[in-house]
């Protein structure tokens, strides 16, 4: 540990209100100077030493707690290395207080300073200090000449010191002006960046309809441009935090900010800023954060410790309002550490606008998520439970297009006839909306109602279905396959009728793949019902019959023969794969789906 200067632990010799003037301290900060050498001010100290023939000369700037020397000549150690002293060792503080030069031939004779520790520990006896001022005349410190023995200061020396102080003050004002210009430039760049952020935010958020993705993008968009770290909190229907997402500018804090976000959903007190904003819908600006802010927010020591590690010196929280209403669906919280300027009203205005735009985008994502959930529940409610059959094992899947909320017309069905035969069907009603799903439900029910208990050939059953769709004026174009599986020698006999649907595939027990081909007959539901035919084949024990809708193989930019060949290649060698895993394999392909997919797989026992 470094040695502390003598007397550093003693209180200041005086308590001068002028030292704490906010405007003066702001000007001091704007100089950008500190207790390190600065060549321009070192030059002023050398000129004072040379021209006044003094052993010690200082450019001394005085804060409310210390004085520091960007220019210094002749200071004894350890002060020369430290370039600062506490106020207990400061004569220059009195120049700031008096706002006029202070000239002392022998400081030991003056009550104001004779107890000052600078006399005993720095050897200050004769002192002459001239005020250094900013453009508003506030005294920031002094340019001072010091001798270790009494001396009479001549008029020429004092005039020279005054002229040098005027030049030194000009340099200080230039530093302040440069800092102001730099700050103005930074502010202009910040304003430009914020305008760009606001302009692009809607596009950033509208690129997804997933709530979690939208929230993550929002948090990432504001860090580090607006804050060191950010939290986006969404509420449940009772307006309690249900999920929070955090982002920190420092990747090393990724786990910490994620943990803090997790704790926000359960450990915030009713007095926390987040809950206050959720309750009132009004933003809160904490320009200067205090430990009490954290203690009001939570009594969880882990959260408090995390906040301190992440950096908690300034914060603001704004509502994420429901678009077009007064309700609040969440909050955006911005936090800065000690190394960044505190938030101000300009930051608050920007954040409020971000919250408003986020409300529109997240609200759309939220609505989409709810609609998608309803649609998927509706779709799956229309898909049947698969029957148990001693002849075969069955598995099925339905997968909607990932980026679309609509339900569709894809369907499958399977049921056991009274005589034990197994009926399987798959189809696709044109369209991707509620009407297509409703039509799909009608068609599926027609298949069940018309074929259950009947033993006539499947092509006749398909013809009756075609006539029913036409006669009942069901507005639909439907592709479908209807198949009947009956006990046969060494396995099952299968007869099927195909109305415009992709051909069934068979994965044999030895791993080969074949197509149950033949010409596809016209769709169901056309103006004139078409003549239908049945085709027949056999399935051995261990063979798998695969029915699927066109979403599995159709791509806008590729011929279906090519994608169907790829499906055949994918199926090769899957004979021993459990049926559920086979279905998952087919749906797990990395190719982007352009349509819903329904699958029905039947493996002969």
Automatic annotation (TrEMBL):
Domain of life: Bacteria
Keywords: Hydrolase
Organism this protein belongs to: Micromonospora coxensis
Molecular function as annotated in GO: phosphatase activity
Gene3D superfamilies: 3.30.450.40, PPM-type phosphatase domain
InterPro entries hit by this protein: Bact_Sigma-Reg (IPR052016), GAF (IPR003018), GAF-like_dom_sf (IPR029016), PPM-type-like_dom_sf (IPR036457), PPM-type_phosphatase-like_dom (IPR001932)
Protein name as it appears in the record: GAF domain-containing protein
Domain PPM-type phosphatase: 392-604
Region (Disordered): 1-23
Domain GAF stretches: 36-182, 210-372
